[in-house]
Design goal:
Strand order of the largest sheet: 3-2-1-7-8
Mean pLDDT: 91
Shape: globular
Structural class: alpha+beta
CATH class of the largest domain: Alpha Beta
CATH topology of the largest domain: D-amino Acid Aminotransferase, Chain A, domain 1
Number of helices: 13
Radius of gyration: 22 Å
Length: about 375
């Protein structure tokens, strides 16, 4: 029996390009190959948007050893046909065409996770893992996500947002908009993840600097008030109509801000403990909450997932005031870094089982969509 061709797409023109490579190879490609059920095809998109495919792209050492650029120079880019499906056209002495049965996106951030890649796959009528274009776009816009989630009667900490161009054109007006907010504040690019360009600020000078940094990476900026007595909680979710939650997770960041360096370069460890070994030593699983608060957090996370229209996989981040017991929605990520495999393992789901479940959810949704009529016959054109 022929194995289905599963394409794993990663890299792309995104500030989260490198994180995407790790997610694709470690959390998706390697466990998929362990199932021995699929022909796994890596599709690597360079930072300037060229598409490549070769078995060598499955090896993380290609990217970490400095050999990537020389390899790309001697490898011909891939052509892709989206005519009634997705076909890879591999140039060479003899052109090789490969029909793709399912796509597993691993493209974090812009030009992928934000719904752009999913829109392309929808147009081609190809099954794919994860949220659809609309849900993806909502998730990746922190302002839009808050607008949608507010309809579900979910609390949110105070925030303001503005376009980066407005800050350049009329900085005093933007600062006046933010003047009534209480420090400390968090400044974030609206469309980025992986804690890139996020700053915690305590005064106006730091605020201006942080806005300039965020505006360098995005066209929209959001500024949020910090939550008092903060307990930050993450809830990984999978499913379509029936939503399954993993254990709640609580980052153990101490007094430090959980930025990109802490999360990825130091694997979540404080600067004082940066040399200690072991990934994900930065968190408590499950989060240190009462059973009632833990259940309420999961319930709110599922409500957010459902309201936005997520499918396949997402991660909901919540902020809790440990004294008032108020739970605030912070943001949602439609493609959690490394799929949060470390968290799913705590509820008995291995990384191999996780990717198989995600493929099953993708297949289920695809089959459901095929039952929906998308054409309508009329006599409209006969009048012309």
């Amino acid at each position: 029996m022929t194995k289905p061709n599963v394409a794993v797409i990663f890299g792309s023109r995104s500030a989260e390009h490198d994180v995407s490579i790790v997610t694709a190879i470690v959390s998706i490609i390697e466990p998929l190959e362990l199932t021995n059920k699929y022909n796994v095809i890596p599709i690597y998109i360079t930072k300037d948007g060229a598409w490549y495919s070769s078995p060598q792209f499955k090896n993380i050492e290609l990217y970490s050893s400095g050999k990537l650029e020389p390899f790309l120079k001697k490898t011909k880019p891939l052509s892709v046909s989206f005519d009634r499906g997705m076909t890879l056209i591999q140039p060479g002495f003899k052109t090789k065409n490969t029909k793709i049965d399912l796509v597993f996106p691993a493209t974090h951030g812009t030009y992928g996770e934000d719904g752009t890649l999913m829109g392309l796959l929808e147009m081609a009528n190809v099954a794919y893992v994860g949220c659809d274009p609309v849900a993806s776009a909502i998730c990746m816009d922190k302002v839009l996500a808050r607008d949608v989630v507010s309809k579900a009667n979910v609390k949110m900490n105070r925030y303001e947002w503005f376009y980066a161009s407005d800050f350049v054109r009329d900085q005093p007006a933007v600062m006046a908009q933010l003047a009534k907010m209480n420090y400390p504040l968090f400044v974030k690019p609206v469309h980025l993840g992986s804690s890139i360009a996020i700053s915690r600020v305590n005064n106006q000078k730091e605020l201006i600097n942080a806005i300039e940094v965020a505006a360098f990476y995005d066209s929209k900026v959001i500024v949020e008030e910090a939550v008092n007595n903060l307990v930050e909680v993450t809830v990984p979710l999978i499913g379509n109509d029936d939503i399954v939650a993993a254990n709640t997770e609580e980052p153990n960041q101490g007094k430090e801000f959980f930025d990109f360096e802490t999360k990825y370069m130091r694997q979540g460890k404080s600067k004082a403990n940066a040399s200690s070994k072991g990934a994900h030593g930065y968190s408590h699983i499950p989060a240190r909450l009462s059973e009632e608060m833990r259940n309420e957090s999961i319930s709110i996370a599922k409500r957010v997932y459902k309201t936005i229209g997520c499918s396949g996989i997402a991660r909901v981040d919540l902020l809790i005031d440990s004294k008032s017991k108020d739970i605030y929605f912070n943001e949602i990520n439609p493609l959690p870094g490394s799929l949060f495999v470390h968290n799913w393992k705590t509820v008995g789901i291995s990384n191999v089982e996780l990717v198989e479940k995600l493929i099953n959810y993708a297949t289920e949704r695809y089959q459901q969509k095929q039952k929906i009529n998308t054409t309508f016959s009329t006599n409209f054109l006969k009048q012309f």
